[in-house]
Amino acid sequence: MTTGKLTRLNIFSASGIQMRTFHITWMTFFVCFFGWFGIAPLMPIIREDLHLTKPQIGNAIIAAVSITVFARLIVGRLCDTLGPRITYTALLILGSIPVLGIGLAHSYESFLWFRLAIGVIGASFVITQFHTSSMFADNIKGTANAVAGGWGNLGGGVTNMVMPLILGAFVAAGYTKPEAWRLAMLVPGVMLLVMAFVYYRFTKDTPEGNYSEINRAKTPDANPVSFGKAAADWRVWALFLAYGACFGIEITFDGVAALYFTDTFKLDLATAGLLAGVFGFMNIFARALGGIVADKVGAKYGMRGKGILLATMLLLEGLGIMLFSQMPSVALAVAVMLGFAMFLKMANGATYAIVPFVNKRAVGAVSGIVGAGGNVGGVLAGFLFKSESISYGQAFLYIGIAVAVVAMIIAVTRFEKKPVEESVVEFA
């Protein structure tokens, strides 16, 4: 068995604990999206069943991402201390409970509480990035993190496409729509429990073994610094803002896209879900591309180059969202959506190409803080979609402006200038 951190990413290999862990962690994150956002494409049906108002739907969107802020901070620290394997397994089991139980909601209040509890699953991202970072060397970390995160985020798009089909299958089997959406949510709940077993059984905390099996004092990143020290670094908070402006908007769009296409362009549930799914489906390559480009820029221009790249991606994302908000037809809206989605997802990858280098003795804590920033961005954006005084289109316009402002902040942020070696990705 190969031990030590890999300097190459062979995406078609599953040999060795490093690549096995890489593939299991992105697949687990993929499944987590089914639990986290499985309800989103079903919201037109749920809105009718539970008689939800626009502000109540907005509250549900906010609830889905708000608790994740705190969950990401906690699991980031747990990764540093207990290890990603135990932390992920526990999170999957805990998260499956509200996913399996949300079908018991028969009022706005009970639905909101279940939606809030489900948000804990969103902390899975931090563990995915931490675990991937522990398996790969510095020259390939950005690429490995971006590929794992992107393929996991792909679950957000596939969820929008698949959950309406699962609901349709139950309707075809003779169940009413109110019964069908409740039964449909049992599917992601069971998937989470299956992945909990797989993660515990087939992964290790590090290439050398689990934390309980090795002498961590002899490892380079041993003796993690306090959370306070990690949080005192202003660069962490710059990345916090950046991730709020990219991933925060991604999860917001995942939550409202089907409703937006349904209400604005009068599409049916399946078509709206398909178009919303296209947005998420771009994660199969766009986030990875952001990480690959960031690693190559870092090899030539250091961390300052990565920072400028991130700022550029955010600026283009913001401009694209502003344009999207003004589109008069569904064809133009989808075309512009594909454009801003590309820059948004590349910004996701570029952000986490910087994160592992801010403080190598607190990768979990830094990942947790920055990851929480994504959810803070999602919460703030959710308030715009909750408001009855502005339309969804206006909400997207304001979001685009905010993203462009964050891009300016990142552009003037000075990250460490030490260059890293060029990454290598193998496709055969």
| Number of DSSP E strands | 2
Radius of gyration: 20 Å
Q: What top-tier CATH class fits best? A: Mainly Alpha
Number of domains: 1
Which residues form runs of ≥5 with pLDDT under 50? 417-423
Distance between the termini: 20 Å
Q: Report the sheet-strand fraction.
A: under 5%
Main beta sheet: 2 strands, parallel
Strand order of the largest sheet: 1-2
What percent of residues adopt helix (DSSP H or I)?
over 70%
* Helix run count: 17
Written as H for each helix and E for each strand, in order along the chain, the element string is EHHHHHHHHHHHHHHHHHE
Please identify, by name, the CATH architecture: Up-down Bundle
- Look at the structure and give the mean pLDDT: 90
Determine the structural class based on helices, strands and strand pairing.
mainly alpha
Subcellular location: Membrane
Transmembrane segments: 21-45, 57-75, 87-106, 112-130, 151-175, 181-200, 236-261, 267-286, 307-324, 330-355, 362-385, 391-412
Keywords: Membrane, Nitrate assimilation, Transmembrane, Transmembrane helix
Domain Major facilitator superfamily (MFS) profile: 21-418
Q: Could you characterize the architecture of this molecule?
A:
The chain is mainly α and 428 residues long. The chain has one domain: Up-down Bundle (Growth Hormone, Chain: A), CATH 1.20.1250. The chain is 74% helix and 1% strand. It is built from 17 helices and 2 strands. The chain has helices at 16-37, 43-50, 54-81, 84-101, 108-118, 124-135, 141-172, 177-184, 186-202, 227-231, 234-265, 269-281, 286-324, 330-351, 355-358, 363-386, 392-411, and strands spanning 9-10, 425-426. Strands 1-2 form a two-stranded parallel sheet. The radius of gyration is 20 Å and the shape is globular. The two termini are 20 Å apart.
